[in-house]
């Protein structure tokens, strides 16, 4: 028992036993936080299709913005498609959706952050198989992560 008290005494002497002062946490203003449309890089006037999106933060894009947002599968190519996949099985649809993105358009694939059954690797493989390339990965909302895909340019256009 004597050895433990000596160790504590030495620790106190060298400052290891002192409690560290707490740093006050100040939450960011809501104005300082990026909105979902800013995180996704959506420009005003863009034609956007939300497919399978159930998250209220992303589905809120349909509210009041300068975007042309639809929740239906487009009949002609659009600027941006935002697709939410909940399982690896749902990624089969990616090849169909890449045909509905304009040549200079973007396909965002969203998936649950904390999900173990669907990971970033699953999403990458599904999109690379369709001939698209990943340019960005980000946390879209607190619950969803997303990857941005564009068409590969053969001639450096």
Structural summary, described in words:
It contains 5 helices and 6 strands, in the order H-H-E-H-E-E-H-E-H-E-E. With about 160 residues, it is α/β, with parallel strands linked by helices. Helix 4 links the parallel strand 3 and strand 4. It is elongated. It starts with a helix and ends in a 6-residue tail after the last strand.
Task: Break the fold down into its secondary structure elements and pairings.
Layout: H1 2-13, H2 36-39, E1 47-51, H3 56-59, E2 68-70, E3 78-84, H4 94-98, E4 101-112, H5 120-128, E5 132-139, E6 144-151
Parallel strand pairs: 1-2, 1-3, 3-4
Antiparallel strand pairs: 4-6, 5-6
Beta-strand residue fraction = 25-35%
Distance between the termini: 76 Å
- Structural class label: alpha/beta
Count all strands and give the number: 6
Query: Topology as H/E string?
Result: HHEHEEHEHEE
* Mean pLDDT value: 80
Strand order, sheet with most strands = 2-1-3-4-6-5
Low-confidence stretches: 28-32
Largest sheet: 6 strands, mixed
C-alpha Rg, in Å? 23 Å
Q: Counting H and I runs of at least 4 residues, what is the number of helices?
A: 5
Shape: elongated
Proportion in helices: 10-25%
Briefly characterize the structure.
The protein has 157 residues and is of the alpha/beta class. The chain has helices spanning 2-13, 36-39, 56-59, 94-98, 120-128; strands at residues 47-51, 68-70, 78-84, 101-112, 132-139, 144-151. A 6-stranded mixed beta sheet has the order 2-1-3-4-6-5.
């Amino acid at each position: 028992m004597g050895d433990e008290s000596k160790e504590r005494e030495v620790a106190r002497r060298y400052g290891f036993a002192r409690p560290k002062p707490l740093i006050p946490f100040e939450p960011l203003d809501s104005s300082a936080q990026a909105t979902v449309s800013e995180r996704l890089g959506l420009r005003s006037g863009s034609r956007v299709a939300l497919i399978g999106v159930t998250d209220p933060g992303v589905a809120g894009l349909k509210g009041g913005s300068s975007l042309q947002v639809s929740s239906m599968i487009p009949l002609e190519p659009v600027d941006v498609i935002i697709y939410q996949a909940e399982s690896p099985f749902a990624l089969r649809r990616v090849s169909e959706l890449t045909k509905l993105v304009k040549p200079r358009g973007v396909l965002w694939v969203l998936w649950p952050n904390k999900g173990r059954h669907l990971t970033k690797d699953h999403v990458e493989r599904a999109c690379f198989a369709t001939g698209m390339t990943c340019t960005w990965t980000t946390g879209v909302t607190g619950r969803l992560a997303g990857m941005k895909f564009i068409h590969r340019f053969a001639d450096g256009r």
